[in-house]
Amino acid sequence: MTRAPYLRLPKPRPGAQDAHESLPAFVAERLREAILAGTIPPGALLRQEDVAGRLGVSRPPVREALKQLETEGLAQYRPRRGYVVAALDPQDIAEIFEIRALFEERIGQAAAQHRTEEDLVALEAEVLAMEALPPGSPEGGRAFGLHNRRFHDRIRAASGMRVMGELLGVLANRVERYIRLGGRLANSREQVNREHRDILGALRDGDGQRLGLLLRLHVHDAGARLLRSLKER
């Protein structure tokens, strides 16, 4: 079992923690982003003293943060070893994408009714940012993953379906690191960009049925591509 490579992570800048943010939330956010970005790999040991020393906090908020990540499916507690970064097997991934496809369809139907011009402008900006990224580079893959997440988060927010949106966010976190790896593949990105354009067009037209169908197919195809890429690795 490997130890998490915290020394490769930049220390937080002075003042990086918002004065109104709790220490457990601050630690959880730092760890969450490192896990989702793939900086800390599946199976890595999350030693509380390492995290506390790296982020300049005491161990109690680290314990609380790790418990939060466990509820999100990003960390697992193992007796006599402590917390490790959770890994997913192909069956888990398939189930998550199946559930997401159903939820995203309903989210799309609602978003078409409630979206605003501000939503459309923000989504257009995310699509343009993804289309402008250089193909094939690791840096471009990471940026693509971030813009892709913002694109889908914005549609969920536009739907007004808070509970379903929160559940989708949890499910998305569990597979986000694998999605970001897939974002490094140029041919995959080109297809996703085309699908995002179609999704945005349906949202702009207010066509809930078409938008829901496009989102369901988009998520289903993303899951299928991801499972194929994992088998080939």
From TrEMBL:
Q: Which Gene3D superfamilies match?
A: GntR ligand-binding domain-like, Winged helix-like DNA-binding domain superfamily/Winged helix DNA-binding domain
Q: Where is the HTH gntR-type domain?
A: 21-88
Q: Which Pfam families match?
A: FCD (PF07729), GntR (PF00392)
UniProt KW keywords: DNA-binding, Transcription, Transcription regulation
Point out the signal peptide segment: none
What does the organism's lineage look like at the top?
Bacteria, Pseudomonadati, Pseudomonadota, Alphaproteobacteria, Acetobacterales
InterPro entries in the record, alphabetically? Answer: GntR_C (IPR011711), TF_FadR/GntR_C (IPR008920), Tscrpt_reg_HTH_GntR (IPR000524), WH-like_DNA-bd_sf (IPR036388), WH_DNA-bd_sf (IPR036390)
Q: What is this protein called?
A: GntR family transcriptional regulator
Top-rank taxon = Bacteria
Ranges that cross the membrane:
none
A GO MF term = DNA binding
